[in-house]
Structures are given as structure tokens and as C-alpha cells.
Amino acid sequence: MNIVVLVKQVPDSGLARQLDAQMRVDRNGANNVMGELDEYAVEAALQLKEAHGGEVTVLTLGPGQATETVRKTLAMGADKAIHIEDDAVGGSDALTTSAILAAALGRLEWDLVIAGAESTDSNMGVMPQLLAARTGAPALTGVRKIDTDGTAVTVEHQRTNGYDVMTANLPAIVSVWDTINTPRYPSLKGIMAAKRKPVETLTLADLGVEAAGPAAAQNEVLEAADRPPRSAGQIVTDEGQGGTALAEFLAAEKFI
Amino acid sequence: MTDILVYVPNSGKHAAEVLTLARTLGDVSAVAFDDAAEGLAGEYGAAKVYRVDAPEAADYFVDPKATVLIDLARQAAPGFFLLPSTDEGKALAARVAVALENGLLTDVSGLEADGTAKQDAFAGATLVTSKATKGFTLATVKTGTTEPAPAPGSPAVENVAASVSDADKRVRITERVDEPAGDRPNLAEARIVVSGGRGVGSSDDFALIEKVADSLGGAVGASRAATDAGYYPHKFQVGQTGTTVSPQLYVAAGISGAIQHRAGMQTSRVIVAVNKDADAPIFGMADFGVVGDLFQVLPQALEEIDKRK
Ligand SMILES: Cc1cc2nc3c(=O)[nH]c(=O)nc-3n(C[C@H](O)[C@H](O)[C@H](O)COP(=O)(O)OP(=O)(O)OC[C@H]3O[C@@H](n4cnc5c(N)ncnc54)[C@H](O)[C@@H]3O)c2cc1C
Ligand SMILES: Nc1ncnc2c1ncn2[C@@H]1O[C@H](COP(=O)(O)O)[C@@H](O)[C@H]1O
């Protein structure tokens, strides 16, 4: 079973993030990490490989520093990686990104593509479906469980009030939520082994993609501003009356 | 007036919100795949309804509906095409985007007739104004951003018969498992949400959170730390990777207020926090906060609420 995992490097979602002067996600800080949900995609791929054999290839599109994210996936146990890196990519929209990733997928033999349900910087959650539309493969998105018999893939698609069991023949594209597994930490041995694993670097020219960057984008960010802070509330310290004070506040606001 | 195409799912409030927002932009043509959706379109002011008859569509994921929507979008050449920002809405929008090579805005929280859109970035910490520069404005609309306002009418109905091609039968839904919703209001749509975090400490103690929710007529929510620890089922998780809520009142008990949690609740109208750590970030966004042990504060509040009822 050949599995391609899509990972994206993002600014750490637990820390302050901002747009730069060109209204793009500022990726120059020191706080770049693998997209938090993508770790679950890597883990899912590794577990399927352990059960069914085959190879896990990591595919990422991002600037030079995304190598760190690639290294981490290799240290976790992925076999090899493809890193698309080209200065012309900056400022691309999701549609262009999907055209680039689809071109890369077109050069590979794969049974399954596994992605995060959404990236934790743009949070669009559309890439797997965009890629399904471009590659013609079925997409089973937002899942919390994957099984395969080598011919078909069966998943549990997570909903707010339950889940759907869905199935499709391979090759297929699946995206995963954080409910699917617990990602492993790279072991020391894994970190050492990662240094010898192959990483292929590709440019847009290698992929035959011409239009990218802001000129090809179909939307633009005009302005960005910090969310205005909420006006300071009233904070009381419980000295035996905290619950009563809380109820009084709720009554004053007409919730009781 | 510009034609606004709207995909209407069959579930209530979010669909009503999208239709209400759409009406402010122009004449609404709603796409409905069932009677419930058709009813909503009429109640919330659609001028026209495309009533699609594709009974088999329900057995397959995304593709059959996407094919219908792509055809309609091509024919209607709308100024805007709006869908709810749900898994399904985003998936359908992605399909339309590629088929028509049209840009896509997700999770918009506001739209103007000139096409400018408001979006949240970085879990809501940054507010962005953006705009489609080519094609039409294809956007998914975030829940809780427009107050639904009924405007009952009798829209012109155009019946669309759609057969599902084999190509669209690739992802088959073999089983739908609905976990019982119980007697409490639906989390995403509730007027009041009472959430517990790691500070609740155990699944047994979540009964206290449920009691508070019930006494206020609200839904129960939980932080990821609480769902990860197994204190409460995952489907009640509020936040970036859980449900986004926008109630009139949000009560956070034993929740620190991590950015990923805030992402799912910061548009609540009134926020109340109970936490024993005076430095917990949740207090920075609370309208009313009690620094104290939730096992002292909440039972006392419950007693007082009962007295006042
Ligand atoms: C990719 C990603 C996605 C995420 N998505 C989400 C999400 O959707 N939703 C979400 O909630 N989190 C999410 N998180 C996790 C988030 O970062 C936090 O870890 C989580 O929100 C913390 O939950 P908590 O506040 O309950 O726990 P903690 O941060 O451990 O806080 C517990 C709080 O309870 C207080 N407390 C303890 N005992 C008591 C007591 N007896 N009385 C009163 N107060 C008490 C403590 O002072 C503390 O402030 C995500 C993280 C990542 C990386
Ligand atoms: N530049 C990228 N390179 C590789 N994978 C990506 C990239 N952008 C998005 N993805 C994948 O698609 C998923 C959803 O992304 P998004 O639609 O941007 O929220 C992510 O979790 C990744 O798995």
C-alpha cells in the first residue's frame, strides 16, 4: 500500500500569529510547526503501513524552513519526502495550491492520500476535496477511523451528532480529525535514521505549473486588524459568596 | 438585482442564517434537496427555489449534490454563491470552485453587496476583509454571524430532476449512526452553553455541569482536555477542532481559555468564567468571572438560581 501524507508547516496555533505587510500569513517567526492535525495524518499513515506494508511518502508545499517539518515526519517513520519549494508560490490561494499538489500527486503511484482535516493556519479544510476534484479520486473527509482491505477504504466520518460509515475503492483521499489516534513522538533512532532518508525538492517548473502566486489568486485580502478586545468584565474572588454573586449576575442579565 | 445562489441544508438555524444574510445582497435562489430545505427557503425569503429531486443522492457523500450545484451555478451565473460553513458546505464549495475555476472564501462572517467579505483569521484573533477578484463570490458562511429573520413568501419553484451517475457513486454511505441528542438543546444552536474543562476532574463530576446547564435550559459543552480525558464525549467539544458556538450566554467552568478553545466560543454575547486560577486567560475575555473552586461556586449558584425561579 503506497500512502502519500500531506503536511503543511504552520505558525504554532498556541502562540500569537499575524499577517505580514502583504497580507500573507507571517511565516518568518521562529514558531513554525507541523500543522497540528497533520501529525494525526502521519500517524494514521504509519499505522496503515505497519498493518499492510508499503511505503509512506510525505508531500509538502512550503518555503525552505518547511524542511524541519519534513524531517519530523521522517523521524516519526515516513520513508521519503517530496518538498515543493519555489519563491513563486508565496501568495497563492487554495485553488492554486491544489493545482500544484495535484501535479505532484500525478507523478506518484499511490493508493491512499491522507491529509489533516484542516490546516491550523488557514483553517479552510478544503484541500482534500479540491484535490479529489483535480485528481478524480474519491474523497472521504473529516474522519475519525480508517480501515482498508487493500482494495477499498472504509471510514467513520465524524458529525456533531454521530458518525457515518462510508466506503470507497482505492485510490482515495482521506482527511483526519484529532480523534483518530495519538501521534507518536520521534524516537532518537528515528531522528538519526531520518537524516539518511531521501527528500526530493521540486520547483513549479519541474511540475509544469505556470500560474501561481498573487497574480493567479482569485481573492485578495484588503485589510487585517486585531479583534477588538472584549471590554473588561467584573471579576470577583470567592470568599463564600461567589456562587450567589454569579447567580445575581445571571439574573441581572435576564438569564434567570 | 444580483442573483444570489444559496445551498440550503435541511438543518435549521445555520441555514436560516445563510438565507437571512443572502437576502441583504440580492434576490435569493435557493437550492433544496428535500422538503425541509424547501420549507426553510420559503420561510426565509427566497425568491426562487430549485427543488432538486435526486433521492439516491442521500446514499453517497458529496459527489451527487456537487454535480447538481456545479450545473446550477453554471446556468445561473450568480453574483454570489453561498453555502453554510459545515463539513458538507465546504466540501461542496470546493467542488464548485475547481469545476468553475473560481476562487473560494471560507468561514465568512459578513458580506457586503460589493463583494467584500469579513473573515476571522488565526482562530478569531485577527479580523480580515477580503474580496473575490475574479469570477463570482463563492463563500461558505460561518454559523452565528447573522441573526435569522423570517420573511415568509411563496417562492417560484423550479423542479430539477437529477439522476446520480456512476461516477458520483464512489463514496457510499453504508451506515448512519445518530448518537442520541438527549433532551438538551443542540450545542451548536443553543442560546445558553455551560462548558466544563479539565478542572471538572472526572466524568462523574460532569453531572454538576449538566445540572447547571439544565437549570438554565442550556446545552453542555466541554474543552478538549475534558474530552481527551474521557470526562465527556468528544462530540460536545467546543473549539477549533470541535463545535463553534455563539450563544447569548457561555459559562466556562474549570477551563483555562486556550486559544483553540476561544476559537470556538469567543463570539458568545456574554461570557462567564469560574476558575480557581486568577491568572487563567479565560478571565481576560469574561464579562463576569469568579475566582474560586467550581465545586464551591456552582452548587451555591444552583441553589440561588432555584430560589429565584
Ligand atoms: C490542533 C489543536 C486543536 C485544538 N482544538 C481544541 C478545541 O477544539 N477545543 C478545546 O477546548 N481545546 C482545543 N485544543 C486544546 C487546547 O490547546 C487546550 O489544551 C485545552 O483547551 C485546555 O482545556 P482546559 O482549559 O479544560 O484544560 P486546562 O488548560 O488544563 O485548564 C484547566 C483549568 O481548570 C482550572 N481548575 C482546576 N480545578 C478547578 C476547580 N476545582 N475549580 C475551578 N477551576 C479549576 C485550572 O485553574 C485551569 O485553568 C486544541 C489543541 C490543538 C493543538
Ligand atoms: N501547502 C501544503 N502542502 C501540503 N499539504 C497541504 C498544504 N496545504 C494544505 N495541505 C493539506 O490539506 C489539509 C487541509 O488544508 P486546508 O484546506 O488549507 O485547511 C492540511 O491539513 C494538509 O494535510
What does this protein structure show overall?
The complex is a heterodimer of chains A (256) and B (309). By secondary structure, chain A is an alpha/beta fold. Chain A contains 7 helices and 13 strands. Chain A has helices at 38-52, 67-76, 94-106, 127-135, 188-194, 204-207, 242-252; strands at 2-6, 9-11, 32-34, 55-61, 80-84, 112-116, 139-148, 152-159, 162-169, 172-176, 199-202, 219-226, 234-237. In chain A, the strands form 2 sheets. Chain A has a 9-stranded mixed sheet, with helices on both faces. In chain A, β8 (152-159) and β9 (162-169) form a beta hairpin. In chain A, α2 (67-76) packs across α5 (188-194) and α3 packs across α4. The longest helix of chain A is centred in the N-terminal third of the chain and has 15 residues, at 38-52. Chain A is globular and about 65 Å long. The mean pLDDT of chain A is 95. In chain B, 58% of the residues are buried. Chain B has 8 helices and 15 strands. In chain B, the strands form 2 sheets. Chain B has a 9-stranded mixed sheet, with helices on both faces. A 5-stranded parallel sheet of chain B has the order 12-11-13-14-15. In chain B, α3 (63-76) crosses α4 (87-99) and α5 packs parallel to α8. In chain B, α7 (259-262) links the parallel β13 (249-253) and β14. With 309 residues, chain B is an alpha/beta fold. Chain B has helices at residues 12-23, 35-43, 63-76, 87-99, 206-216, 224-228, 259-262, 294-308; strands at 3-8, 27-32, 48-53, 80-84, 105-111, 116-121, 126-132, 137-141, 156-161, 172-178, 192-196, 219-222, 249-253, 270-275, 288-291. Chain B is elongated and about 60 Å long. Classes of the chains: A alpha/beta (256), B alpha/beta (309). β12 (219-226) of chain A pairs antiparallel with β7 of chain B.
